[in-house]
Structure formats: structure tokens, C-alpha cells
Amino acid sequence: MILTRCCFTCRPDPRFVSFKKEGSVGIRLTGGNEVGIFVTAVQPGSQAQLQGLIPGDKILKVNDMDMAGVTREEAVLYLMSLQNQIDLIVQTRKHDYESILNTQKGDLFYINFTVSRKF
């Protein structure tokens, strides 16, 4: 029998991170609606860094908005639209994050359109 062990950084408990937006949010995102929204970079000295956000953190909620099924663009636009307080629920998911970087997965798009004909 082969036993596998998951390290603490694989799926630790979700945590709450809160900070005031000072200009930019101070993070860069990757991922998307297929895999979730992940922090890929944190600006040094930003409130996001000071409050403990790190690359590999999966963003589960932003100010009570669930990030499941959200495209990367929607997540970026939502974060940019926030004026002051940013409250996040995140979970460090290094293994998933590294997999996303290696496979280039992110958003899965569906195009739905209706054709109307006039005679």
C-alpha cells in the first residue's frame, strides 16, 4: 500500500484577510472560471502583502461575492471597482496553483447567441 501525505500548504483552512485599498489592490490574478481565481503576485509593501496574501492563495470570496465561476476579467474588474475596504476569504492551494501555471488553464468560455431572421 502506498500512502501519500499532503503538506500544510496543499489545503489549509480558509482564512479571512482584510485591508483598505490604497490606490491599487496590490495583487495580480491568474486562473478563471474553470479553475478558480488565484493570487499570482503580490506588490511588495502593499496592504495585501502586509496582511499575508501570497502567490498560490485561492480567492474564495471578495466582500461577500463568491468567486466560484467568475472569469479572471470579472474578478479584476470587481476588485478595481471597490472603493475602500477589501475583505477576502482565501485558501492557500500551492499544488493547484502550480498545476494551473503548468497547464495554462484559466477561463472556459461558452458563446451563446440567438439568430433572428426577418422575412
Overview of this structure, please?
It is a single chain. Helices cover 20% and strands 29% of the residues. With 119 residues, it is of the alpha+beta class. The protein has one domain: PDZ domain (Pdz3 Domain). A hairpin with a 3-residue loop joins strand 2 and strand 3. 27% of the residues are buried. Residues 1-5 have low confidence and may be disordered. Residues 21-94 form the PDZ domain. It comes from Portunus trituberculatus (Swimming crab). This is Tight junction protein ZO-2. InterPro entries: PDZ, PDZ_sf.
List keywords for this structure.
119 residues, alpha+beta, Pdz3 Domain, 3 helices, 6 strands, globular, Tight junction protein ZO-2, PDZ_sf
| CATH fold-level topology | Pdz3 Domain
Beta-strand residue fraction:
25-35%
- Measured distance between first and last alpha carbons: 70 Å
CATH class: Mainly Beta
β-strand number: 6
- The number of helical runs is 3
Name the helix and strand elements from N-terminus to C-terminus, one letter apiece: EEEHEEHEH
C-alpha-based Rg, rounded: 17 Å
Main sheet summary: 6 strands, antiparallel
What is the CATH H-level superfamily? Answer: PDZ domain
What number of domains?
A: 1
Looking at the structure, what is the overall shape? Answer: globular
Low-confidence stretches: 1-5
Q: Let me know the average pLDDT.
A: 86
- Based on secondary structure, the structural category is alpha+beta
**So, CATH architecture?**
Roll
Helix amount:
10-25%
